[in-house]
Amino acid sequence: MTTSDPRGPAPAGVSAILATTMTTIGFFALAVFGLGALSIATDADIIPVPGLGQAPGITGMIIAIIVFAGILWLAVRIARPRFRSVWTIAIATTLAHLLAVGFTVLVVTGEFVTALAVMGGLITGGASLIVLVAAAIAGWAGVALRRTRASRPRWPWERDDAG
Residue 65 belongs to what domain range? Predict the structure, then answer.
């Protein structure tokens, strides 16, 4: 008598690299869409300080993507990651975005008060909330991809039944 699973061996699931890659792209797409929608809904720029250019926004998003991917990779590289790690991923990504934008504004303008004002505007204007939600959704998806042990669907005649 055998004790093997009649449905076959358990599938391996999604690899950590694939889960990290897919959800990092998803995070970027959600964040850009969310920030664009916020800008359209409020009829205002995300960073309304004139003369800054695109550098603070670009730098903030690049750093946020790097932090998101790095922390998600640490979370999903284990075989059965926990959904509790999503909080760490979301909060760290949001703080990294906020600090990167503030530091870039400080470098561009040389004024500490302007950098603090821009960071405060991101928080009160809702941009930081958008980044937080996008990171939480994408982080949850990354953990879910890794935890799911699904495989491709098979027709009955594709199975390797030994009988």
Answer: 16-45+61-149
